[in-house]
Amino acid sequence: MSVPNNNVAASAGKASNVQKTPGAKPTKAASKKKDEEEGVDAGEGLDERAHGKALIKPADQLELTEAELKEEITRILTANNPHAPQNIVRYSFKERSYKPTLVVDQMAVHFVLEGSLVHQDSDEGRRLRAKEGVPEETTTVDTGVGSDEEEPETLSSPVEDRPDSVASKTDKKEQKLTNQINFSERASQTLNNPMRERSCQTEPPPRSNFSATANQWEIYDAYVEELQKQEKDKEKQKALPSKKDNDKSRIMLTETQSNDFTKVAKATQILERMVNQNTFDSIAQDFKYFEDASDEFRDQEGTLLPLWKFQYDKAKGLSVTALCWNKKYLDLFAVGMGSYDFSKQGHGMLVFYTLKNPSFPEYIYPTNSGVLCLDIHDQRSYLVAVGFYDGCVAVYNLKQKGLDPVYKSTAKSGKHTDPVWQIRWQNDDMDNNHNFYSVSSDGRVVSWTLVKNELVFTDIIRLSLNGVVSEGADGSQQPSIACGTAFDFHKQIDYLFLVGTEEGKIHKDHLWALCCLPVSAMKNGSSFCLCCTYRHPAGLALQRCSKTYSSQFLETYDAHSMAVDAVKWNHYHPKVFISCSSDWTVKIWDHTINTPMFTFDLKAAVGDVSWAPYSSTVFGAVTTDGIVHVFDLNINKYQAICQQSVVAKKKTKLTHFEFNPIHPIVVVGDDRGYVTSLKLSPNLRKKPKAKKGQELPKDPEVQVAKMEKLLSLLRDSEQSTV
């Protein structure tokens, strides 16, 4: 191979004969020359490699036993590249989809250098030497004596005095070892996998040549055809309203289901939720993690943080008439859409929203009449009972497809003759049939039982005005009917309930009245009625049950001067309930006392009121001036600890209000069809702190004790004034 000129000169100097200095040690270069004279055909680096294999023990070498030295350590080399990608996909025109690539190149190139060395014996090497004027190297074979004599001259040569020469390396006392333990030079060669080429060919799409000339007549004909199609569509739309009212729901169904997306409905629903969670990510973060730190400086007052706003375009013009959270799926809630303007009654809608997708409802059920109330079953969360403006009640099953209810009352099955204002699920009867109760302006409180494919009704109460008598058609005197507007069952005593009327009174009663049949005592301290199969608690065994109601109530409260909009029992304390009315007041009652314990004037008509599920002393109310009021009697018994407007327009009226069973949020509905979710600040959901060395009792006991303490203070103050 061709080398620089100084290497050639060095090789020429080695070939000259010099005398050896007596007494001098033979060096590596002299031994190499001797090997050349003895005819040993070895390379220049052979002796250097042999010298590198000399075993020299350094001072800091680790001492190993014979067993450790003889231990074999196996290393396996593979041809697979650990950094090679494994998930490469390429589009296959044959199958019209993306397919993973099976063959991946495993070769990894660590270093590439393009050299310019030329072999000295090649024709190109000779031409280069001739061009540069370098004489060709002549090798002479001398005797051993001659080689010894030329060693001093070689040592004095300037070429050999370079720091990287062999002689300079031999003068060093310590040599740099490759490894301080046992080093043996080994070499391995891996087999490179043969390269394979894989290719595919797809068929090109079919092509066809098309040519046409567009003139004035063809353009005119195209416009005429389009106008004819539009006229036919208008005629079809005019013919549709002439059908029966029962077909209106089917018409709306065809509009929403014009295209069949059933195959990808689940995937598109999940994708829509993902997009909405990314869109409203900041709101989701506030819902999960944000806590208003400024509550520490507000002197026990709190705020409401607006979160999502729910609306449905096809429900514009309708008011929010009912709200109810699902007890099993805590992110899902139902909204009843109707109208409180009775001169503009029309269709209604039942929609279900979820916090995971605030942009569009999860379920949509259009109705022929406006929805005024609804309730979701506690155990079977797919059953929803709905009351309508036309007096019908219906039960929807979310598991079944279609927009029609699975149960619906008719004139033959005992439907109400006036709007249904309140509806509530109750525990199953003795035959494990689901049942619910409804109250209406016709003065009836009706029990509805789901038996096979029909609704079986039973009139529980007929409300009447005490002392007011009207004449019937035959001249007989009949008690005047009172209009029921709200009712609620006791949370612990499921047979005890309250009914609010349009006249402002609240009646307390139970599900049993007088009867002519005897009762048989049971072992558990309750009685079992033989005429209606109801189980009576102890203390009511002397009273007898009947489906025909006696006009006497257990208690009647002169609650408000206008219609009672809502009445609800406390979640914890068994004696306390709350009521609100359009007379601007919210009142808290002890059902054993005829007078209210607390009265709050909110300076506007109150649309709804609700107890908080996490505290016995916290409740919220909404008024028609667009303000949400939150009270905590344990902190302030005289005024609200939060009063906040949550509407954009001043004329917007809030209609309903509901706490979430678990999460610290509330939903508020208005008369424009919007539902707003709000998060409670820490001051609105405080829990009692335990004193040092004392343990707090369980939560229900704590809540009952909180309310009982307030009631005892009020009773003591009343007795002192008397």
UniProtKB/TrEMBL annotation:
Composition-biased stretches (Polar residues): 1-20, 177-193
UniProt-listed InterPro entries: Dynein_IC, WD40/YVTN_repeat-like_dom_sf, WD40_repeat_dom_sf, WD40_rpt
Keyword Lipoprotein: no
One of the GO BP terms on file: determination of left/right symmetry
NAD in keyword set: no
GO cellular component labels: microtubule; outer dynein arm
Transmembrane segments: none
Intracellular or extracellular location(s): Cytoplasm, Cytoskeleton, Cilium axoneme
Pfam families: WD40
Residues in WD repeats: 557-590
Main location: cytoplasm
Stretches the record annotates as Disordered: 1-54, 119-213, 228-251
Compositional bias ranges of the Basic and acidic residues kind: 120-134, 159-176, 228-250
GO molecular function: dynein heavy chain binding; dynein light chain binding
SMART domains: WD40
Keyword list, A-Z: Cell projection, Cytoplasm, Cytoskeleton, Dynein, Microtubule, Motor protein, Repeat, WD repeat
PANTHER family membership: DYNEIN AXONEMAL INTERMEDIATE CHAIN 1, DYNEIN INTERMEDIATE CHAIN
Entry function: Part of the dynein complex of respiratory cilia.
Entry similarity comment: Belongs to the dynein intermediate chain family.
Subunit note: Consists of at least two heavy chains and a number of intermediate and light chains. Interacts with BICD2. Interacts with CFAP45 and CFAP52. Interacts with CFAP53.
Protein name in UniProt: Dynein axonemal intermediate chain 1
Species annotation: Seriola dumerili (Greater amberjack)
